[in-house]
Amino acid sequence: MIIFLANLQRIDPSVIEAARIDGAREPQILWHISLPALSGVIITTAILAISGSLKTFDLIYAMTGGGPAGQTRVLSLYMYESAFRGAPNYPLANVISTVMVIISIVLIIITRRLGKTFGTQED
Prior knowledge:
- It contains 6 helices and no strands.
- Helix 1 packs antiparallel against helix 3 (26-54) and helix 3 runs antiparallel to helix 6.
- It has helices at residues 2-9, 13-21, 26-54, 57-63, 75-84, 90-117.
- The protein is elongated and about 70 Å long.
- The chain has a single domain, classed as Orthogonal Bundle (MetI-like fold), CATH 1.10.3720.
- By secondary structure, the protein is mainly α.
């Protein structure tokens, strides 16, 4: 939220004032001025959220260890259990980690393409 607030404060107030004088309503100002100005930040935070959601192993393992009846099991915890608990199944753990990387790459590519579609200034 701090990143969004800082970038909202970077928007020139005279542009918003000129849009209001020209008769733009709040949804139009949001869609045509605020969102294009924030598109780079939206892309960056989406990529950070994707990478953060795929590396949730440490907190879940420390707090529940997979939880009651596996209710809090995530891909990274399943990968760890496949590789290091019981009879190790290294090929399965390798496939799980590869799928996690592919999922994150696909999500990042989709996020960046959506950013280019909606006019982000970042490369």
